[in-house]
Write a structure and sequence with these properties.
The chain is about 40% helix and about 15% strand. The model has no long low-confidence stretch (mean pLDDT about 85).
């Protein structure tokens, strides 16, 4: 048996179909474009860092490192004793 279409009850007691507004679509498009741009910029920046490392650049000592396998900058893992 096919499920009935979900409907929203209006104030007048009539059934009205759910509607996605143009504003909601614009907001979704803006968020997607922002996320895409941020991902693109991060990918390009990491590629530049990786190229420099492959050419022999060293990494300044500190809490951050570059994971070549994952191709990402990250905090160094602290060596922890077993059971602590």
């Amino acid at each position: 048996m096919k499920k009935p279409v979900k409907r929203v009850l209006s104030i007048r007691g009539e059934f009205a179909p759910d509607r996605v507004t143009q504003e909601q679509l614009r907001e979704a498009a803006d968020l997607q474009a922002t996320a895409w741009l941020a991902e693109k910029q991060a990918r390009e920046y990491v590629q530049q860092l990786e190229a420099r490392l492959l050419q022999g650049a060293d990494i300044e000592p500190g809490e951050m490192t570059f994971d070549r396998e994952l191709q990402m900058a990250r905090r160094r893992r602290e060596d922890r004793e077993v059971g602590s």
